């Protein structure tokens, strides 16, 4: 009897467990078997169209022209007229050098002219007299001497006039003026300092910022591709290529640039090609030394434009994007070939009209996950907003991914 008790107890326990399992198996599945809910995602509908083909080149801003201001005469600085760091116009007075010695030199030159001119009538009269007396009291030698004297008197007048011109130039150079419009630096000399003609140290520097140069850098290999693309596009000549500028803060500059043909050089050390572009800069938004990016349009191509904010790159460098499949699930597509088109990537294969590209909610989805598409649109500023939302108001606020 003692040995049978454990066996009976084990049999009873096993029976209770099997009954419980049978009861659970007969009940319907609860929340664990429920279908995964569809997550809302923002989408845009793609349609084939003609889009610009662009390329982006890094660059740096440079002044249109720079002038180091140096004195052309020696003397003491009597007056400094400009405001350091201010805007100046061509012909504005910058420095006034003490001009009293130069005024005296001008007056002395004028007196020398008067003195030289006074001897001319006497020499002319003397020549006329000897010319009448030649052969009847005057020798030929005396006549020739009188002629030479007159020529020397007239030469003295011309020499005095040249000395006056030189003195007047020196006097004018006591007024140091701006050679062109621009922005002026601080002065290296103050009132009371003595300066020398053509000294090595500049008084100050003027920089013209409107227009402004943008020096773009590209590898010589890509340059050949760029030229081929230009040749294959509708662009007629390099002078018609239009450049758009992207500033350091990511905003597009509101002026268009034109290719400057005066500087096209391949660096012997880096193998890069420098392209210089000229941009209007009326408000001096672009300053020398700024790092910028320039977008150049090389023509147009038919395809589908995928906004850059909705794309990424896989480990192989291929462009990838998330789409909504016909079954309402996330579908990841990879594209072997893509071309830049402003703020989008232009692709020609792997997409058909009506495909829905996911543009927001990307951080919370995975491939194969069911989603609920919500129509969206992308503003000119690259902001994702609801398709029925007006341009003003919240349209300026970025949508959360």
UniProtKB/TrEMBL annotation:
Compartments, record wording: Cell envelope
> What sequence ranges are listed for the domain Multidrug resistance protein MdtA-like beta-barrel?
211-299
Q: Which InterPro entries match?
A: MdtA-like_b-barrel, MdtA-like_BSH, MdtA-like_C, MdtA-like_HH, RND_pump_MFP
Stretches assigned to the Multidrug resistance protein MdtA-like barrel-sandwich hybrid domain = 66-206
Return the SUPFAM superfamilies for the record: HlyD-like secretion proteins
- What residue stretch is flagged as signal peptide? 1-25
Give the Multidrug resistance protein MdtA-like alpha-helical hairpin domain ranges.
107-174
| Keywords for the protein's UniProt record, in alphabetical order | Coiled coil, Signal
- Look up the domain of life of the source: Bacteria
Q: Which PROSITE patterns match?
A: PROKAR_LIPOPROTEIN
Q: What is this protein called?
A: Efflux RND transporter periplasmic adaptor subunit
Lineage runs: Bacteria, Pseudomonadati, Pseudomonadota, Alphaproteobacteria, Hyphomicrobiales
